[in-house]
Amino acid sequence: MATSSLLLLLADGRFPAGAHAHSGGLEAAVAAGRVTDLATLEAFLAGRLATAGLVGAAFAAAAHRAVTSAGSAVRGSTLALLDAELDARTAAPALRTVSRRQGRALLRAGRAIWPEASFADLPGTPGGAHQPLVLGLLCAAAGLSRAETATVATHGTVTAAASAGVRLLGLDPYQVQALLVGLADRCDGVAAAAARAADDPPERLPAAAAPLADIHAEAHATWEVRLFAS
Predict the structure, then answer these.
(1) Global pTM?
(2) Model confidence over 168-189: pLDDT tens digits?
(3) Which residues contact residue 135 at a Cβ distance below 8 angstroms, ignoring those fewer than 6 apart?
(4) Helices (H), the chain
């Protein structure tokens, strides 16, 4: 399969990794009255790109670099360090749980599609590796570049939340897609910055934070009735 087709496959929300079950924090933001329409949804998505999008894409690109340029003796230790550094950057326990759960789902799909990939190099952390690390390995197995890996990661940061906005707020899906088109250049810019950052050691990777998103995630995890898992 051509590289461009594989990029589209991994960026597709229908890829069986469970992304459709998560709102990226939007459900809690809607409940708190902070996202109510297209304008506030756009601001929410821009905020995700600058924080979770940048961090997740940088770690996915760094994981890709670890398995494509490091020797076999250091791949495992580098991925373990990346996992620990990403854990430290994820302040909310609920978000750490979600990231590892999504990582497990993505890993199941990856093992079925690319059984020859070096998934054994992932750290044996309880709960599984963080989702960006698994994504980095999948993209490497698919033959994507580091820049393409970062693009897939940033794309996923906004598309799942945008889709959730249609369901949660009853927004016009055509207008939401137009909103995503308007964010495309910003998404590409974040992906490019993340790909460049992957050259840095794990402890110097981006650590952009969104404290209100962390608070919302912890509150959302206590709800007995909710539409999305996060």
Answers:
(1) 0.94
(2) 999 999 999 999 999 999 999 9
(3) 10, 60, 63, 106, 149, 152, 153
(4) 3-11, 26-31, 38-48, 54-69, 72-89, 93-113, 131-141, 146-169, 173-182, 184-197, 211-220
